[in-house]
Write a structure and sequence with these properties.
Layout lengths: L1 H36 L9 E6 L7 H16 L4 E6 L7 H10 L4 E5 H4 L18 H8 L2 H14 L1 E3 L3 E10 L14 E4 L3 H9 L3 E4 L5 H7 L4 E4 L1 H6 L8 E17 H4 L4 H35 L3 E4 L3 H19 L1 H9 L2
Parallel strand pairs: 1-2, 1-3, 6-7, 6-8, 9-10
Antiparallel strand pairs: 3-9, 4-9, 5-8, 5-9
Helix pairs in contact: 2-11, 5-13, 7-12
Length: 347
């Protein structure tokens, strides 16, 4: 009898252990599913998502992301919440591409220069002196060129782009000297994005291109890893790079763009109501960001002028343009001659 009692208790313990393990497994599966779907497991059914950005809260772009978050909340009656994570809190832009694909983040902003290595056609925005001005770039990005690129983004990476932002006109700033002619770049270690075309362009201009993630740039300038960087005045100002680099030269090398986007794996799993709200808010964000960037450009110049930044125009823009001409021939096959023509014609 005692033996049977022990056997029964042992069987009961096994069954209880099995039930506990099954319960834990189900709980973990539900948690993973909710994490992938971007859902905050709240009783009210509210879905909370992440929007990743490398830029500071003071940047005009951040203001447009907050606008997007507010519009999504309003359009869904508070059912879909977008939390914005600035300052590279969730990684760098190259990582965002992967995170959007896997569902680790739902939304993010990625520079077209970062997308170039994934999809060569995006390097159309990396060609130096490609567009006459930002309005020419907007016309091309909002037209046939932009539609072709967004389609490639969806097909090749599983990411939906809302449109093309004004990511600013990229100029050179450094802590050595004013840049008037290409010869002034000789011996200057210039940080660039991790993009071969851009690296090559600045090498052609005479600088020693040094690719680094944006989040490492301030400390790299501070420690002398690099002497210079290139970017729009809004970023130079909001990231406080003027504290180290007092020389700002209007080289206008690139007219940059970036794309706010959503991972299609997550987006396609959402109800129609959410998708419509996201699409509408995304379109509005693109237009708002252009407005905010224009306003901040003026504000930044005025403040930096007071802070003693030394601004200078280049003496011979044609000399810069001539040196980078070989890049067009180098990249024509990768980008596509027809695409370059569409960009130049504004179609």
């Amino acid at each position: 009898m005692p033996k049977n009692g022990r056997t029964n208790r042992w069987s009961l313990d096994r069954r209880l252990a099995g039930i506990i393990l099954m319960t834990v497994a189900v709980f973990l599966l539900q948690s993973v599913t909710q994490a992938v779907a971007g859902q905050a497991a709240s009783d009210s059914g509210v879905v909370v998502t992440k929007f990743a950005s490398v830029l500071a809260e003071s940047h005009a772009m951040h203001k447009s992301y907050l606008f997007f978050a507010d519009r999504v909340k309003d359009l869904t009656g508070g059912k879909l919440i977008v939390k914005v994570y600035p300052n590279s809190q969730l990684g760098n832009e190259r990582e965002y591409v992967e995170f959007l694909q896997t569902g680790q983040i739902e939304f993010g902003r990625v520079a077209t220069a970062v997308l170039g290595p994934f999809i060569p056609q995006f390097q159309i925005f990396d060609l130096p002196y490609m567009f006459k001005d930002k309005f020419a770039m907007f016309k091309a990005a909002d037209g046939e060129l932009g539609e072709i690129l967004k389609k490639l983004l969806a097909e090749k990476l599983g990411i939906k782009g809302f449109g093309f932002l004004d990511d600013g006109t990229r100029h050179i700033y450094n802590n050595k000297r004013p840049i008037y002619m290409p010869a002034d770049l000789k011996g200057i270690k210039l940080r660039t994005m991790e993009n071969q075309l851009i690296i090559k362009a600045y090498n052609y201009l005479g600088a020693a291109s040094t690719p680094l993630p944006f989040g490492e740039l301030y400390s790299a300038l501070q420690q002398g890893v690099v002497d210079a960087a290139e970017g729009p005045i809004q970023t130079y100002w909001t990231m406080k790079h003027y504290e180290i680099c007092k020389y700002w030269s209007y080289t206008g090398t690139f007219l940059s763009s970036a794309i706010p986007m959503v991972g299609l794996k997550w987006y396609n799993a959402q109800p129609k109501e959410f998708q419509q709200a996201i699409d509408q808010a995304g379109k509005e964000m693109v237009l708002k960001s252009r407005q905010f960037m224009g306003e901040q450009e003026k504000e930044a110049f005025e403040d930096l002028n007071k802070k003693g930044v030394q601004f200078n125009e280049v003496k011979d823009k044609a000399a810069f343009v001539k040196l980078v001409e070989p890049i067009y021939k180098d990249y024509e096959a990768k980008i596509g001659k027809d695409l370059i023509e569409k960009a130049q014609s504004g179609k």
